Amino acid sequence: MNAPADPKDSTVPAESEKLAEAFRIFNQASEELAGTYKTLQAQVAELTAELAAANGALRQQYQEKAALTERLTLLLNALPAGVVVFDAAGRVVEVNPAASAFGFAPGCSWAEAEAAGLTATETPGEYHAGARRVAVSVTPLDSAGGRIVLLHDVTEAHRLKTQAERNERLAAMGEMAAQLAHQLRTPLAAALLYAGNLENPDLAAASRIGIAQKTVARLKHLEHLIQDVLLFARGEVLGRETFGVDALVAELTSTFEPLAKSRGVDFAVAADGGDGSMTGNRKALAGALTNLLENALQAVESGSGRVVLTVGRKESHWLFSVRDNGRGMAPDVVERMFQPFFTTRPDGTGLGLAIARGVARAHGGGIDVVSAPGAGTEFFMTISLGLAAPDAE
Fold this sequence. Notes:
It is a single chain. The chain is of the alpha+beta class. The chain has 4 domains: 24-78; 82-153; 158-235, Orthogonal Bundle (Helix Hairpins), CATH 1.10.287; 238-393, Heat Shock Protein 90, CATH 3.30.565. It contains 10 helices and 13 strands. The protein starts with 6 loop residues before the first helix and ends in a 9-residue tail after the last strand.
């Protein structure tokens, strides 16, 4: 007969199996941790390599930018033109040596620099800086809200330009001296003839008045011719003031509209000046534009003619357009029409358009013309808007 089994003997295999299973799980987890650690080591090594490469690239970019900054600084300091950087508040934040010579320094405003040594000239955008003449241009910095101001020393260029213009005028006057003498002699001879008739004691009162009027008319023609010659010879626009464009247009309209009505010519104005203003010699500008309008009036037919004055802004200029539906001009006439003393009118002096172009150029603009036989004529006169202070909004 067998003896009963000991309960303790049955629990030993079970505990051994559990312990073995626990060791197996532990070994498996250890292997997984070891694998994960190796993976992490590989990733860390890869990230370290990538970081080193990125640092190398950043270091190279920094070195390149440092070299570029150095080159730009050397270039900025070596520039003969002045460069001034203004911030959004209108204060100087950077200035090169050439601009320092004109009175600009970090922290100052445009008004302070202008008061220190800049005086506006008769030409928009140009200033006197002591004995030198400086052209100023402004470029906005959209990203930073400031502005860059460039200052160019145009003293020698202005001197040469003035001398060339003077030589050109003197040459033109020398070449046309004979024509001028003829134009002066004809009205003078007529005035003398009329004045001689006034000495006749038997002349009727009505005839005397008529002859006197003709004498005065010839003398006025002489005066107008001499004034044109003097204005062309001087070649300068004296005086500088700021005035509204609408006021100038109103002056032109009041002057020219009665002339157009007397000829039965339709006159229209299309002005888009608003409350804009310009700086220059108002009298000279009005005279130049009136000359263009009178030329248009002479070119159209009475009763069916039309003259249109258009005013507007285009980029950095005011644009005045005078268009007519007249007979137009041949290409050879268009080519010569701005030459002094050239005219197609029997009573013209040939100086009106030359003076008008000189006035436009003195105000930073010019005059162009588009014309063809039978297609009418259009003159385009541009006038510079002028230069606003860099700290002005």
